[in-house]
Design brief:
The complex is a heterodimer.
Chain A (H helix, E strand, L loop, with lengths): L1 H16 L3 H19 L12 E7 L4 H11 L7 E6 L2 H9 L5 E5 L3 H6 L5 E6 L5 H23 L1 H13 L5 H17 L10 E4 L15 H33 L2 H6 L4 H30 L8 H25 L3 H19 L10 H7 L3 H13 L9 H26 L2
Chain B lengths: L1 E10 L2 E11 L4 E5 L6 H8 L7 E6 L2 E2 L4 H6 L1 E4 L11 H11 L4 H14 L15 H13 L5 E5 L7 H16 L3 E6 L2 H7 L2 E6 L2 E7 H8 L3 E9 L1 H8 L6 E5 L3 E6 L2 H15 E9 L3 H9 L6
Parallel strand pairs in B: 3-8, 3-9, 6-7, 7-8
Antiparallel strand pairs in B: 1-2, 1-4, 4-5, 9-10, 11-13, 11-14, 12-13
Classes of the chains: A alpha/beta, B alpha/beta.
The complex binds adenosine-5'-triphosphate (ATP) and magnesium ion (MG).
């Protein structure tokens, strides 16, 4: 036992000395999480998350300003947020405090004349300080729309010319004329394919006061990441386990394993040392990724006991799987190929890239039968759905049975190979 | 100290060992000499418990390896055929790790490490990562790692493969000092000159059997005091066999397209006659006389030369 620990510590020290690929692989779940957030986070509103409510305060009360809501709520923008008119900033603040709105857009007075005269026209944007995701989505949409609006300004000279004519004629526009102008803006916006003609329209973001404690389902990035990050961590760990096991394979090919076996510690200590090394290294990396998740992605690591129970089982599985493939392979290319294919297949079934919750029912039930899928869903159950340990029995059973089976086979084949 | 009797081992259809027996006394260097695939590494494998023989026994210091592997490994030092060291560590860290596996610790470990570093001439490079070491230095450290715990039996599997003559010489010197320290050494090689220079006794092994065994002198006598005449040129086997029947004092060892090997006593007296007959044998471009050596014995025993 002591010998096995000596050997495990030795292997770990080697990884620390020469982390190489491991660092690179560690970056994978982090990078993917960020990419998914950029690509997927903003469309979350379409799926499980409600659209963010954006308040609209028209202080200008002119033809242009009253046409603006149609521009913002038309087209793709309407999937991301609901517009609701307010009469004053204090009304907006009340809604903010109740968490009923993500942001406020203010059209300041003088906006129309600035637009018409081609001067700098600024829209006010006030994010709700207690929310994060909703306001960010709203803001990026507003900025996009502002960009489109600028293109629109260049391309939609026609409705602007109409407005200018109306203003100069100093008479009330008929409702037909207002409708025509609004439609003009809207159509121009819809037809606009390229964003060009950046001129004066900007979005000024105003953040009132220090930000309060962030709350609210779906509007919190922690929630989003708690949902996506586990799958990526599980995937990353499978890859890292492969890289760690490949080091043992290379040791074997270079005769290092045999050299250990002929010392008095014998084959069982050498095998056990390899197992301890893999499981301990993977578990440590899992904890590290968990801390990254908490610090960088603001995932709230609730119920550590459940997380450890799932994580330990999964570390055993990932170690056993790759130890087995390395033990059965004859060359390191063979082991590399087999290992990668297994990781890919498991990740596709288990839903590392898209949470299995979003799969159709049949695939969803399949996903939680593979160990990585079960571990991932287990983490989500704890972090997002806040299930207690007692409710995780099924997930734990899947992860641990796969883990012990893979490890058992790996040890069996290693032992057989070491005594030819 | 090292006893091997009647070892047999098959790998599937390959008969790697067909009844190998030998013994090595303390302080003795026993050379296991044979071409590629002869069964040298398999024999070493049995001796360190890595290969389980189909039948036969092996023991170290009276300890049966199959029955009491842990105790047997305690008295055993192994220098594997490949350089098996951790490239991410320094020489000293490598040795410390192996020393711990042999149960050394604390000041005993650090003393053993310093001593063995001194012995292989690497004391001044102990703190360097071994990535920077030359082939010869790596080989010496590879040996050092097998000597740390003062083994009574040392197994060395071709420790000089691929080295320049100078590095080889320094390793042979090291092996002599190991035996001089009282250890029984099994040294496998397919370099004849190494076996001749180094070993007290030699077992010639080929295709899983020991064909001859003894001191260098005994083996030379067994080969007969015959010298080898080597002719280079172009030869046809049938012609040579027919023609050489006229010269019974010569024995044909080997005929290939490019080479003809003959043995004869007192070669210098017969060379003239042979050269006179040379034109009937084929085209001769070069003639050389080699002193009787293991080589002639080896060729006689196996019908092949002992080159890679
Ligand atoms: N694990 C194995 N599986 C199958 N065949 C093996 C195994 N180990 C050795 N052999 C075969 O047994 C025979 C003896 O091999 P061995 O390695 O003992 O030769 P050797 O004398 O050490 O040769 P070399 O000089 O090339 O190292 C060879 O034919 C080899 O292919
Ligand atoms: Mg060999």
């Amino acid at each position: 036992m002591t010998a096995a620990l000596t050997i495990a510590a030795h292997h770990i020290r080697r990884v620390v000395r020469n982390p190489g690929l491991i660092l690179l692989l560690l970056a994978i779940p982090l990078t993917f999480a960020i990419i998914e957030y950029a690509a997927f986070g903003r469309t979350v509103a379409k799926g499980t998350l409600p659209p963010a409510t954006v308040l609209f305060l028209d202080e200008d009360d002119t033809l242009v300003s009253s046409a603006l809501p149609q521009v913002f709520s038309g087209g793709p923008a309407k999937d991301f947020f609901e517009l609701s008119q307010v009469q004053s900033k204090s009304e907006a603040v009340r809604l903010f405090k109740r968490g009923q709105a993500a942001a406020l857009i203010v059209v300041p007075s003088g906006f129309q004349s600035a637009v018409l005269e081609g001067k700098r026209a600024e829209l006010g944007f006030y994010p709700n300080p207690v929310q994060s995701i909703g306001p960010e989505i709203a803001r990026s949409m507003l900025e996009m729309t502002a960009l489109i609006g600028n293109g629109l300004y260049a391309k939609a000279l026609e409705p602007i010319a109409q407005i200018r004519a109306l203003v100069q004629a100093e008479r009330e526009p008929t409702s037909d004329e207002v409708a025509a102008i609004s439609r003009g803006f809207f159509e121009a916006g819809r037809r606009l394919s390229s964003l060009q003609g950046l001129s004066g329209l900007t979005v000024g973001v105003q953040r009132p006061g220090a930000s309060a404690v962030k709350t609210g389902f779906g509007n919190d990035p922690g929630q989003f990441f708690a949902y996506v990050f586990p799958g990526l961590v599980v995937f990353g760990l499978l890859l890292i386990a492969q890289a760690l096991a490949m080091r043992l394979m290379r040791d074997r090919l270079r005769g290092l394993q045999r050299r250990l076996v002929v010392t008095p510690v014998g084959p069982s200590a050498v095998i056990l040392g390899g197992v301890f090394y893999l499981v301990a290294a993977l578990f440590a990396l899992l904890v590290f990724l968990g801390i990254i998740g908490a610090v960088v992605f603001r995932i709230q690591l609730r119920d550590p006991v459940s997380l450890v129970a799932i994580g330990a089982g999964f570390a055993i599985f990932a170690s056993g799987l790759h130890l087995l493939s390395v033990s059965l392979a004859r060359s390191d290319r063979g082991a590399g190929f087999v290992g990668s294919v297994i990781v890919l297949v498991l990740s596709l079934i288990g839903g590392s890239f898209v949470p299995a919750e979003q799969y159709p029912p049949f695939l969803r039930s399949l996903a939680v039968l593979v160990p990585n899928g079960a571990a991932q869903q287990g983490f989500i159950d704890v972090l997002v759905h806040k299930l207690p340990l007692a409710a995780l029995g099924g997930r734990l059973a899947v992860v641990w049975s796969w883990g012990l089976a893979a490890m058992g086979l790996a040890v069996y084949f290693e032992q057989r190979r070491l005594r030819s | 100290m090292i006893e091997v009797s009647n070892l047999r081992k098959n790998f599937g259809d390959i008969e790697a060992l067909k009844g190998v027996s030998f013994s090595v006394r303390a302080g003795e260097i026993y050379g296991l000499l044979g071409p590629n695939g002869a069964g040298k590494s398999t024999t070493i494998g049995v001796l360190c418990g890595l290969v389980v023989p189909d039948s036969g026994q092996a023991s170290l210091d009276g300890i049966d390896i199959a029955r009491r592997p842990v105790e047997a490994r305690r008295v055993l030092g192994v220098v594997p055929q490949e350089v098996a060291l951790y490239t991410e560590f320094t020489a000293r860290d490598n040795l410390s790790f192996f020393g711990r596996l042999y149960g050394l610790g604390g000041s005993r470990l650090s003393e053993a490490v310093e001593q063995v570093l001194e012995r292989v001439g690497l004391a001044d490079r102990a703190r360097e990562p071994i990535e920077r070491f030359s082939g010869g230095m790596l080989r010496r450290l590879n040996i050092a790692a097998g000597l740390l715990h003062g083994p009574k039996a040392v197994l060395m599997d071709e420790p000089t493969v691929g080295l320049d003559p100078q590095s080889r010489a320094s390793i042979l010197e090291l092996v002599r000092s190991i035996a001089a320290g009282g250890a029984a050494v099994v040294y496998t090689t397919h370099y004849l000159d190494e076996a001749e220079r180094l070993c007290d006794r030699i077992g010639v092994i080929d295709r899983g059997s020991i064909l001859a065994e003894g001191t260098l002198q005994e083996l030379r006598d067994a080969a007969g005091a015959r010298e080898i005449i080597a002719l280079r040129g172009t030869f046809a086997a049938e012609v040579v066999t027919r023609e050489m029947q006229k010269h019974p004092e010569f024995e044909v060892l080997k005929v290939t397209d490019g080479e003809l090997l003959l043995t004869v006593q007192r070669a210098e007296q017969h060379v003239a006659a042979l050269l006179a007959a040379a034109s009937s044998l084929g085209t001769v471009r070069e003639v050389a006389i080699r002193q009787p050596s293991l080589e002639s014995l080896f060729i006689k025993l196996t019908g092949r030369e002992l080159r890679e």
